[in-house]
Amino acid sequence: MASSDTAQVSSLPLPPVQYINQYTDENIRRGRAPRPPPVIHDTYSMFGNAFNADDTIIRPLESQGIKRLYPQHFDRRRELRKLNHSLLVNFLDLLDLLVQCPDSPRRQEKVEDLSLLFIHIHHLLNEFRPHQARETLRVMMELQRRQRTETAQRFQKHLDKVCS
Question: Sign of the C-alpha dihedral, residues 67, 83, 58, 49?
């Protein structure tokens, strides 16, 4: 029979106990908790690639050696739609090519075209990230402001009841 007690399992591992034990209330109050690591000022390595701390977060396609498929100044929404449409058409062309002649050398060209389109779509989406972060922050701050206003109004209402 199945047990009614089901165990919840986290997809993330628990923090190492040796770190948890160093950040007790007592250690924090006495100033014995470990300090955060120093800020990176020069270069660092991540996933085997070297990065400079002063690098721009979203590098232009040209600096990565990738041919740009759209102009420098453009409507991002329109370009994303065009890239998405091109992606679908190229995928259908690849399928047609695979059905007609699976050993064709054009197959690799189509795969490279699809790869280039995916790179451009990802690049355009990543250019939206700063805007998305600002908008998320704006919404969070608006929610906090509304909650504080409501709390202040409730407090004022209770204060008025107590004073009267």
Answer: negative
